[in-house]
Amino acid sequence: MSKTVLNPTDPANETGVTGQYKNWFLDYASYVILERAVPAVEDGMKPVQRRILHAMKEMDDGRFNKVANIIGQSMQYHPHGDASIGDALVNMGQKNLLIETQGNWGDVRTGDDAAAPRYIEARLSKFALDVAFNNKTTEWQLSYDGRKNEPVTLPMKFPMLLAQGADGIAVGLSTKILPHNFCELIEASIKALRNKKYEIFPDFLTGGTIDVSNYNEGKRGGKVRVRAKIEELDKKTLVIRDVPYGVTVSSLCDSIVKANDQGKIKIKKVTDATAAEVEIIIDLAPGISPDITIDALYAFTDCEVSISPNACVIIDQKPQFVSVHELLRVSADNTRNLLRRELEIRLGELQDKWHYTSLEKIFFEEKIYKELEKKHETWEKVLVAIEKAFAPFVKKLRRDVTREDVLKLTEKPVRRIYKLDIDELNAQIKALEADIKQVQYDLEHLTDYAVAYYEGLLKKYGKGRERKTEIRQFDVITAKTVAIANTKIYMNRAEGFIGTGLKKDEFITDCSDLDDIIVFTKSGKMKVVRVSEKVFVGKDIIHAAVFQKNDERTTYNMIYLDGASGVSYAKRFNVTGITRDKIYDLTKGSDKSKVHYFTSNHNGEAEVVKVVLSPNCTARIKEFDFFFETIDIKGRGSQGNTVTKYPIKTVKFKEAGKSTLSGRKLWFDSKFGRLNTEEKGEYLGSFEEEKLLVITDDGSYELTDTELTQRFEPEKILLIEKFDPEKVITAVYLDNDKLQYNIKRFRIETSSIKSKFLFIKEGKNNRLEAVTTDQEPVLILHTGKGAQATTQRIQIAGFIEVMGWKAAGNKLTDYNKTVEMEWEQKQNEEDVQAKLF
Hints:
The chain is an alpha+beta fold and 837 residues long. It folds into five domains: 17-178, Alpha-Beta Complex (Topoisomerase II, domain 5); 230-304, Gyrase A, domain 2 (2-Layer Sandwich); 336-457, Orthogonal Bundle (Topoisomerase, domain 3); 484-655, DNA gyrase/topoisomerase IV, subunit A, C-terminal (Neuraminidase, 6 Propeller), CATH 2.120.10; 664-836, DNA gyrase/topoisomerase IV, subunit A, C-terminal (Neuraminidase, 6 Propeller), CATH 2.120.10.90. It contains 16 helices and 48 strands. Strands 25, 26, 28, 31 and 32 form a five-stranded mixed beta sheet that branches. Strands 40, 41, 43, 46 and 47 form a five-stranded mixed beta sheet that branches. A hairpin with a 4-residue loop joins strand 34 and strand 35 (674-676). Helix 2 crosses helix 3 (67-74) and helix 7 (182-193) packs across helix 10 (324-365). It starts with 16 loop residues before the first helix and ends with a helix. Mean pLDDT is 87; it is low at 1-9 and 829-837.
């Protein structure tokens, strides 16, 4: 008798090890994807969330229930431990949408855990009861042990998945859907039903700001940047009042301390003063700029985080990657279909009720009930007689009379019928007909009905759910520009080494680990290298410094000898872009070339030098002055201008020169609140040593320098321009105490830099309305509305004298909500000529 030998590696053999692992793994992967990690598109719920809500609905009596009890009830449907159910329940409760909570439920901002389940309570919110439950439209299935029914999906009439967000890691895929704003989702759903364009962006309970430039509708490959809001309390103190999504107060503080320990920022201490609201106080080290520190906090700590959404949901029992716009449209269509099903069920119920009420009316009005008093042989003959008695009146009904209808009528106790009873039945029928007509109308205008449903939700539940996360485009912060100079770099001139480890050699400068160092040698070579412990750059170093890319103002003045011809040349050049670690020859390339003189000038200064020729040369004049201002600034590869064809003994500095560069042109980018030289935003002018004047809506002015790392709050700025101490400032402000607008004209009399001065009357709700530095300002004042509207044109300089900056000013007009004001725009000569010709 032969034996059959099974091959355990045969894929076709399911009883073998390979076959079993293949089937088991696929089953496990499918189970994790469909039953644990990824939400369903219909209701936006994972199975554990759906089962918790179903259990809470079964328990619902309007009162709070212990969370421990809810977990126990949910275990009838969810075949996993109480910990997973409890975590999911707390997570939903913290989102403050479907579940009302009582007790200590933790805090997503601080990372504090909720109290034990036996100490906290919960119940379904009124919103959840309105949008998530309807037994008549729910599809049911048996629970895992076959004892009870549970919903396949909840009949969710709201984009819950987008409101709550979702995170999940399954086998081979993951999902991350960010939460969106309640009110905005409803407004977008209405637009989706109307086939109009809409945009939706994430909104977090933790607040902060978000840059959605690369959100990509929440699809794979998109990204959002989220920032905490950092306020400058004073020049020595910063305060953080919220945290980015997914970051806790403790982890944020830890990241700040770590960045400080690594030397990326420089602070004295971090204090967590969080109580009911987030408050993290940062004390700055002496001499550290708060603006640069804010940038560094965004660059090096969790004050800014990047989040990559990945919208994956279960559609038709398969995981699919979609966009949040598709999810919202699916939700809107699903809501409309659920509302249609509810209306159809309601219509059927109304029609059945109308039919029975009409039967009841005929039964009594036509005295058909008297058939019950006749002596029929059997009960069956009584029923048949009643059915025959209804035959003449079938045309008045909307369907045939059934045996069930007759039985229901005979169960009703018969008493003496009065006219009032018939009138009441007529009134009921009339009301039912009106209801049927309204339901039929709603079915015919289903989109309008769905829109009205959404509008009702917004009116009922929208208050207090306004957007918490401010949408703003972020500026790009280059880590190198905000890194603190946390290390020292040294050089060995003769041997040609630079680095942080050469502490016995010559000190160059303080720098950060992210900086590059530019080096020039006696042979006329240039090289840019990273900061490191020790690196060879070339012997006989004559200059080394931190390299700033795209720096068009730092100018190098150089006189060098061309070794091949013996001619000495002078050149001036910038270095704006390079290839790191590449050697650049600044001479004509001969082996015997060398540098006679070299300086680095931060603002294009052109000094005077004294050139001394060799005493043995045949030149008639052996000493002369050379003026660098006589040559143009060119590229680093230029030959330069001839200085002399005779051999040079020495070149010595004689006299400092002025900058040959024009002033630095500056623009103000109101989108990011930054100064720049890239022609972005409003042109402010050409600056050398001048200051900036900044006036804000709180009625204060500030003089500041033109450092590009400064941060401004553009929404508060009413005026920013080059400061001219001779200009007169004209300002109109609200005196809230006297309910009047005051006007004043004054000159800036202070000279302090980066100090704010309040120039309007101090008082609660006082604010600056309008300000200008025009020499002859004209104010256009609009008051009243409709037929009462009036407009005045006021030449300010004619009746308001220039006063001190602390003066209260003169009354302009009484305060009124209809008052509007603007400065008359003056045409320049070019505009006038253009119109004339």
